[in-house]
UniProtKB/TrEMBL annotation:
The gene is tbp. It comes from Methanococcoides seepicolus. InterPro entries: TBP, TBP_archaea, TBP_CS, TBP_dom_sf. Belongs to the TBP family. One of its GO terms (molecular function) is DNA-binding transcription factor activity. GO terms for biological process: DNA-templated transcription initiation. This is TATA-box-binding protein. The lineage of its organism: Archaea, Methanobacteriati, Methanobacteriota, Stenosarchaea group, Methanomicrobia. Sequence repeats lie at residues 8-84.
Amino acid sequence: MSEYNIKIENVVASTKLAEEFDLIKIEAEFEGAEYNKQKFPGLVYRVTDPKAAFLVFTSGKVVCTGAKNVADVHIVIGNMAKKLNGIGMETIVDPEITVQNIVASADLHATLNLNAIAIGLGLENIEYEPEQFPGLVYRIADPKVVVLIFSSGKLVVTGGKSPQHCEQGVEVVRQQLDNMGLL
C-alpha cells in the first residue's frame, strides 16, 4: 500500500474522562486553554508533543482532533488525564476511546479523467459537479468511507474508523479504476 503514499492527516476520537468538568478552573490552570461559553460550549486546549487539540465539555466528554495516528491519540488523552488529575480533577482510570473519523491522503500517481470515472462508477454512489468542487465524491459501502478523487491522481479518504478502512478505500478505488482501464 505504501506505493500510494497513504498518509493519515487527522484522527478524531472521543472519550469520557470524568462525570463533569469545571471548565473555568481548567482554563485558569492550563496555559493557552480557551473557554468562551457564549461562542462555544467547550474548552479548547492544544498540545504540541504529540500535536493534537482537545475540546473539553462540562459533561466530562473530550474530543481529541489533529493527531496523526491512533497511538498518539491514546498518548495525548493519557497525558491530558494526568494533567487534569494534577489540578485536582479526578478522571476515569481506563477511559474507552472511540475513533470517530480518520482522514487520510493517497496518490495513485496518474492523471485521471473524472468524467469517465463518474460515468464508469455509476451515479448512485458518486457526486461530481466540477463547477462546485474540483473532485469527484465517491461513497463506498464497504468499508464505509468517502473518497475524494482528483484529476491529479490524489485521493482524500474520510470517514474511516481505522487506518485499515482508509487503506481498503484506496484499494477499492484503485481496483475499480484499473478494471475500467482508467488508471
